[in-house]
Design a protein that fits this description.
Largest sheet of chain B: 7 strands, mixed
Strand content of chain A: 15-25%
Strand content of chain B: 5-15%
Order of helices and strands of chain B: EHHEHEHEHEHEEEHHEEHEHHEH
Structural class of chain B: alpha/beta
Distance between the termini of chain B: 56 Å
Number of strands of chain A: 3
Shape of chain A: globular
Number of strands of chain B: 12
Strand order of the largest sheet of chain B: 2-8-7-6-5-3-4
Shape of chain B: globular
Strand order of the largest sheet of chain A: 1-2-3
Largest interface: A-B, 40 and 24 residues
Oligomer: heterodimer
Number of helices of chain A: 4
Helix content of chain A: 40-55%
Number of helices of chain B: 12
Helix content of chain B: 25-40%
Chain lengths: 123, 395
Amino acid sequence: MDYSGEVQRRFAAPGRIARATEHTGCETTGEAGDRSLGVWVCFHVRARAGQIEAVRFQVFGCPHTIAAVSLLAERLEGEGVAALGRDWARELAADLSVPAEKLGRLLVLEDALRACARHGEQG
Amino acid sequence: MNTANEIYLDYAATTPVDARVVEAMAGYLGRDGAFANAASIHAPGRRAAAAIARARAQVAAAVGADPGHILFTSGATESDNLAIRGAMQYYRDRGSHLITARTEHKAVLDTCADLHRQGCSVTYLDCDEHGLVHSEALRAALRPDTVLVSLMHVNNETGVVQDIGALGEVCRERGVLFHVDAAQSVGKLPLDLAELPVDLASLTAHKAYGPKGIGALYMAAGVGVSRLQAGGDQERGLRPGTSPTHQIVGMGAAFELAATAPKRNEIEGLRRRLWEGLKTLPGVRVNGHPTQRVAHILNVSFPGVEGESLRFALQPLAVSAGSACTSDNPEGSHVLRALGLGEHLAQSSLRFSLGRFSTAGEVEAAAALVHEAVLRLRALAPEAPPWTRQGQQSI
């Protein structure tokens, strides 16, 4: 399996990993996937006045998945909360040279974000 | 060439060629060496033929066989094919049923699958949770039309050693041929084919510090196989083609060295040291039988980490997810699944295999690398973070 330089860099130092000590109680959380299937993602999103202020994550998956979660978390910060419902998979796949057989894993990231959005709406 | 920060612990996949073997082979390649075609009757050809005869004797001596019972092939995969396909064809009047085990190497499993597609009936024996195939299970699977049983001696992924003496006796009782894939055996544990109830055995040079591309098939007296290809009388007409003198000489030299290799206890000590370094990680487990195993293989599962990420995080460490021959397969090892491991645990397992050139420093560095990688990956996805499902707020 070949990994792009960006995947290698983000795998080595993903950044924005959720730490228990950072928890403020103001986050909304959404998860998707299943460890037994090889991919599980959980996002923790803090937003104020419709703007995403901070994103943290937990991830169980392959190097492409870890890199994609890291990149997505970075891109979400500063976006409006509507970005949680956007289709990100193709953009991430292109930017990280994710092979076609792994595109399904990127859809799990989208599912986790949508779960965040749902939890946010439900309050 | 290994770079300075690489640690090679994949000796079950292949070994480097011993310098003494390289030296022996070099004498059969160049113009000044015995490069001639060993089938030629002129003097240079006879010199090459004599070298092949010496190598055949060296290989035979290493496995307790008569030199006349050793056929050179391109490796264990070809030997497996020649033994299984060749025997099923040669003895087709006896029946069309063969027996193997779910934990065999792909060289055997894929050959059996091919034969199944061609009309043979194949029984796949289960093993116990330690990877052992039991004589009772074999006895129960034998049928009146069973021609051949093919079981490996040392499992290439777990290092589990099958009791080929007992299994072979079951075959002898019923007059069924017994083929043993012994690719991982030479130099690792004693193998005396003349004393064992074995009819056919596959051997290879490159797992024993010899060159790749050369192996052998042991055929006991009176056993026949049909040839798989035509083109000459070499190797009794069963493996036609110009004999690769330098590779055969290399295999002979490697097997002679393997028979006298003094490092078995040392390698056992290194394996223990590696396990001591790994077992402090919570949840890790060794796969395979605790005692009925070879010294040089340690197969360990690391729960809570994804397999591809674990292997990628261990770039300086040359280890395998399972068999090197199936490393591209995204599915977990078929051997570990046969031992009862789930897909996820099978994927998060690594095979460490030590060799003649392994050192205590390498083993300690490897254990430290694995520790760091496993803890880092587990930290990305703690099993039960205490705060993730609390305090959800509107955004």
